[in-house]
């Protein structure tokens, strides 16, 4: 059975996902939103671990004390690095190489695959064939951004009415409202 690719991202109304190497709302912490990210990317079948695939800049945007992301297999994409950055489990030159690594060397231990950034990696994942899911946190306040999620095409993606483990009600913390959405595509 072909593997489902998952992407998870928090976006401002203009699809901003980053500013200056941080989240756009930095230094405000959205602890419950982060807990949702951790729960979604960590929950795997017994005896397996989920894989998180990220670009080099995303890796280095994670505070050093939080790298690698616990209980997940961390794959960093870079055409510049010759070895995995300190703490990363694997290095791949590009997205297709990372997926080959998951399907070969990591096939026995890998459960779900999660793309966690940045922008060009989301674009590649969103345009790849097969079943893809986008777990989007819609931040309902605009912040300055210099990095953006590609447009979610309604021709390719449909918003699911609900998804197991994803709260449907409006969330709020530190004066910032947001909601969780899940989109799915299944074009071959």
Automatic annotation (TrEMBL):
Give the matching Pfam families.
DHFR_1
> Quick check: keyword Oxidoreductase in the entry?
yes
Q: Which InterPro entries match?
A: DHFR, DHFR-like_dom_sf, DHFR_dom
> Which molecular-function annotations from GO does this UniProt entry contain?
dihydrofolate reductase activity; NADP binding
What Gene Ontology terms for biological process does this UniProt record contain? dihydrofolate metabolic process; folic acid metabolic process; one-carbon metabolic process; tetrahydrofolate biosynthetic process
EC number(s) from the headed UniProt entry? 1.5.1.3
Q: Which reaction does it catalyse?
A: (6S)-5,6,7,8-tetrahydrofolate + NADP(+) = 7,8-dihydrofolate + NADPH + H(+)
Establish whether keyword Oxidoreductase is in the entry: yes
The DHFR domain covers which part of the protein?
Answer: 4-185
Pathway annotation: Cofactor biosynthesis; tetrahydrofolate biosynthesis; 5,6,7,8-tetrahydrofolate from 7,8-dihydrofolate: step 1/1
**Kind of enzyme, top EC level?**
oxidoreductase
Q: Which UniProt keywords apply?
A: NADP, One-carbon metabolism, Oxidoreductase
Q: Name one GO cellular component term.
A: mitochondrion
Q: Which family does it belong to?
A: Belongs to the dihydrofolate reductase family.
Question: What name has this protein been given in UniProt?
Answer: dihydrofolate reductase
Organism listed in the record:
Salarias fasciatus (Jewelled blenny)
């Amino acid at each position: 059975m072909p593997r489902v690719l998952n992407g998870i991202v928090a976006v401002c109304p203009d699809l901003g996902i980053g500013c200056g190497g941080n989240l756009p709302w930095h230094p405000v912490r959205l602890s419950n939103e982060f807990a949702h990210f951790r729960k979604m990317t960590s929950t795997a079948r017994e005896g397996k671990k989920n894989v998180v695939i990220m670009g080099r800049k995303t890796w280095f945007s994670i505070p050093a004390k939080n790298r690698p992301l616990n209980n997940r297999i961390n794959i960093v994409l870079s055409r510049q690095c010759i070895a995995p950055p300190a703490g990363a489990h694997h290095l791949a030159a590009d997205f297709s190489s990372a997926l080959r690594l998951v399907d070969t060397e990591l096939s026995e231990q890998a459960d779900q695959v999660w793309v966690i950034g940045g922008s060009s990696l989301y674009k590649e994942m969103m345009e790849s064939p097969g079943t893809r899911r986008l777990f989007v946190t819609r931040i309902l306040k605009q912040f300055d951004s210099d990095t953006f999620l590609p447009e979610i095409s309604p021709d390719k993606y449909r918003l699911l009415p609900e998804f197991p483990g994803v709260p449907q009600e409006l969330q709020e913390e530190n004066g910032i409202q947001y909601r969780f959405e899940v989109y799915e595509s299944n074009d071959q």
